[in-house]
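Subject: for your reference before the review

Hello V.,

The reviewers asked for a structural picture of the protein, and I figured it would be easier to keep everything in one thread rather than splitting it across files. Below is the amino acid sequence we used in the manuscript, unchanged from the supplementary table.
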Amino acid sequence: MLLASDIRHQRPGVLLLRFTVAGLMLFHGVAKLRSGLGGIESLLAAAGLPTWFAYGVLIGEIVAPLLIMAGILVRPAAWIMAINMVIAVGLAHPEQLLTIGRTGGYGLELQAFFLLCSVAVALLVDRKRA
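And here is what came back from the structure prediction:
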């Protein structure tokens, strides 16, 4: 079994990072499945982009996290999640890029978490198992 083999051979810290970032991202994807993509379609239309691009978010928030958790194409899936976050910040949060939140943290700390942890997974995963 690929997943069991992957778990036995992956460094524990990298495995924890993979499951954390992918698992948490998956919640966002499932929420979009349940509530629809209307908000994303509106952002895309406002930016002059085709609204069908909204379906790409499902790749970045459902397919890629599932691949990462299953240990299949981990490196490309992590890059897809990172690119997904760059696009999300560019479309939905550009005005918050250099802000501090109400509690004193970075204004986009959740988005930064997903972006930087996805990049870390892409860079840390064992090249033989990617």
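For the response letter, the relevant points are probably these. The helical segments are 2-9, 12-35, 38-46, 56-70, 74-92, 109-124. DSSP finds six helices and no strands in the chain.

Happy to draft the paragraph if you're swamped.

O.
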